C-alpha cells in the first residue's frame, strides 16, 4: 500500500475532496436558511380566494434577536412583519393568474418600475448617529464650488418641456460627501425632492431637466414628514415615483416599441 492510502481504493486526497464538498454544502445550506429571515413564508398562489403560504426548502431558521446601532432597539427575525405594500391594483379578469393593472395614478401604485421596499420610517444615520442625508441648510459646512453651477433658483423642466417647479435647496450625503437630491417648490407650492441622478443641470440656461416625469407630475411626488431629513421609507417612495414615470408618465411609454 502506497503512502497516503487508507485502503487500496480510498486515499487521503479523496477524504480531503469529500470534506471540501461537505463543508461547501453545509455553507450553502446555512446561507440559504439565513436569507429566509425576511420575506418568508411566501405567498405562493391564490386558490378560490385563499392565499397559500410556503417556506420551501430548507426550512426557516429559529428566531434571532438583532441589536440595532445608536440605541435603535431590538429586532427579532424571523418575526412579526410590519404592514407591507399598499398596492393600488385591480385584476383585469376574475381568475387565478389574471394580470393586474394600476388604479388611479399609476406612478403611486407601487408596481413595476415604481415598486419600493417597505423600509424603516427612520433616517439613515452616520457613524456618529446623525441623519445622513440632509439639506445644506442643516449641513452648513457644505458648499457648491465656484466652478460648478449652483442649481438653487433654477427652473425644473419635465419630459414634456413644461415647468415642474423651481429648485430651492440641495440635499447632501454627510457620510459620503455628495449631492443626493434637489428640493424644489412644485407648481402647487408643495415641496418635493428629485434624485440628483435623474437631473441634467444646464447652467447657462438656468434649467434642470428631468426626463422621468412630466411637469405636472411634480405635484404628486411623495412628500416628507420632516424637511430637515429623509427616512429610509421616504427615500424608496420618492425614488419609486420617478422610476414609475419612466414607464407611466406618458401613454406611449407603456406600449411596446413594435
Automatic annotation (TrEMBL):
One of its GO terms (cellular component) is plasma membrane light-harvesting complex. This is Photosynthetic reaction center, subunit H, bacterial. Keywords: Membrane, Transmembrane, Transmembrane helix. Residues 148-212 form the PRC-barrel domain. The keyword Transmembrane applies. SUPFAM superfamilies: Photosystem II reaction centre subunit H, transmembrane region, PRC-barrel domain. It holds the Pfam family PRC. Coiled coil: none annotated. The chain crosses the membrane at residues 12-30. It comes from the Bacteria. Residues 5-138 form the Photosynthetic reaction centre H subunit N-terminal domain. Gene3D superfamilies: Photosynthetic Reaction Center, subunit H, domain 2 (3.90.50.10), Photosynthetic reaction centre, H subunit, N-terminal domain (4.10.540.10). GO terms for biological process: photosynthesis, light reaction.
